[in-house]
Amino acid sequence: MTSTDAALSGATAPDEPQQRRGFFDFTLMAVLLYAVYAMTPLGAIAETALNVARGQKQRPSWLATFKGRELATAVDDSAVADASAAEGKIPLPIATAAEKHKIDVEALAALVSVHGSCTPTTCDVTAPPRTSTVFPPVAGKARLSADEAAQAIAAAGKEHGKNAELAVEAMFVGSIPLKLALSQAERSALENGEDVEVHAPFFTPSVRRGSLQGALSVIAVYRLRTLAWPADPGFRITSPFGDRMHPVTGKQAFHNGTDLGTPTGTSLFAAHNGGVKRQSRDSISGNYVVLDHGLGIETVYCHLDSAGVVEGTRVRRKEIVGLSGSTGRVTGPHLHYIVRVHDKPIDPEKVGESPTRGGGLSDPPPPVPPEKAPEKPKPVKPKTAKGAKAADPKPADPKPADPKPTGGDPI
Ligand SMILES: [Zn+2]
C-alpha cells in the first residue's frame, strides 16, 4: 500500500523534486526495518543471533526473546519511578499489617504504592491501579485493606520462603502457574530461574499481558525500594543528585547521580542482585561498573580505583563491586553513583536504603559485616582541636568522614 502511495504521488506530481522522494523512501525504509526488528519474530531471531555472537548465555529460545520484548514495555517506568520516589517512607498501616502476617514490609509497600493508596490509619489496595495493569481481586474482592493484602501475599508466598518477589508473583498469577513456570525455567537450564523476569515465556499470552505485568510493576518498585546503599552509610554525601554548579567546568549542570566522599580503597557494594552489564574505563568516568538489576533498573559506580567484578558475570546484593578511587575527571577520590530506570536517572537518596531515607523497617541484617571491608581508609584527624565537640551535633560517629571536600564529576 505504501508503494502505491509513492507511485500515486509520483504520478500526480511528476515535477516533485527527486531528492525529496529519495529522503521519503529512505525514512520509510528505516521505519520498516525498525518495525521488523522491534515487533516481529524475525527481529527476535536477529537479536538472538547477536546474543549468540556476543557469547551471551542464558537465553531460553528465540521465541522467548520475542515474548520477553513484548513484556519489557509492560513495566511503566515513570509510574515505577514516581511510586518509589514519592513513597519512600512506610505508612503505619503497612508496617502493622506486614508485621502481623510476617511478610516483607517493602513488598507490601510496593504493592500499595503501585495499586493502592494510604491514609495515616488505613491502606487500600484497589483496582484499577495507576498503571494499565491488572491486579487480580483476591477471593472476589476488588478492594483490599493493607491487612487483607498482607494476608494474601503471605498465603501466596508460603512455598517460596523468604523470596518476596516470588510471593508477589504468585499472588498475581496464581501458585500453580508459577510452579509450572519455575519447573520449566529449571528444565531450560536457566541458572537464574527464580528471577521473575525470565518467567514470561512460560505463561500464556493473556497472563503475560495481564497479571504478570501487574506483578512486574510491583516487583520493579520493590527492587528500587530494597536497593542497598553502595558504601557504608557513614560516608558523607558530598554532592547530591540534581542541578548544581559543576566543580570542574564551573557551569550550571544537572548531576545525574550522588557523590559519596569515599577515600581511595573503600569497598563499594552492589545495590542488588544482577548482572555485570559493563566493566570498562573512560576519561570522564574513570574505571566504572554498570550493573543490570532487571526490569529496567541499573546502577553505575564511577571513578573506581579498581573494579572487583567481571563483565558478563552475576553479582549478589551487597557483594563488593570494586574499590573507590579517583580515576577519570574528578577533583578528589569519591564515588559517583547512578540509579536509573529505563535509562532515566533517578535520585539514589530517594529509593532503597539511603542515609536520608533510612534503612527501612524490614531491613534484614546486612550479609556483609563491617569488618569485611578490606582496605581501611586513613583515619581522619579532627580538624579543630578545641570546640570540635561542641560543633559536632552527632555523638561519636564510628565511620571515617571524608577527609577532603571532594568535588563531583561531569557525568
Ligand atoms: Zn558525581
User: SS-based structural class?
Assistant: alpha+beta
The strand count comes to 15
N-to-C CA distance: 46 Å
Order of helices and strands: HHHHHHHEEEHHHHEEEEEEEEEEEEH
Low-confidence stretches: 1-12, 57-74, 359-411
Bound molecules: zinc ion
Mean pLDDT: 75
Q: Provide the gyration radius in Å.
A: 25 Å
How much of the residues is beta strand, in percent? 15-25%
Large-scale geometry = globular
- Domain module tally: 2
* Biggest sheet features: 10 strands, antiparallel
Number of helices: 12
Task: Tell me the helix content.
Answer: 25-40%
Structure overview:
Strands 4, 7, 8, 9, 10, 11, 12, 13, 14 and 15 form a 10-stranded antiparallel sheet that branches. The protein has 2 domains: 77-225; 237-356 and 370-391, Distorted Sandwich (Glucose Permease (Domain IIA)), CATH 2.70.70. It is α+β, with helices and mostly antiparallel strands and 411 residues long. The longest helix has 22 residues, at 18-39. The protein has helices spanning 2-12, 18-39, 41-53, 62-72, 77-86, 92-101, 105-115, 146-156, 164-173, 175-187, 205-225, 388-391, and strands at 116-118, 123-126, 143-145, 237-239, 242-245, 252-255, 258-260, 267-269, 274-282, 286-292, 297-307, 314-315, 320-324, 335-341, 344-346. It is built from 12 helices and 15 strands. Strand 14 (335-341) and strand 15 form a beta hairpin. The model is unreliable at 1-12, 57-74 and 359-411 (pLDDT under 50). It starts with a helix and ends in a 20-residue tail after the last helix. The radius of gyration is 25 Å and the shape is globular. Bound molecules: zinc ion (ZN). Zinc ion binds next to loops.
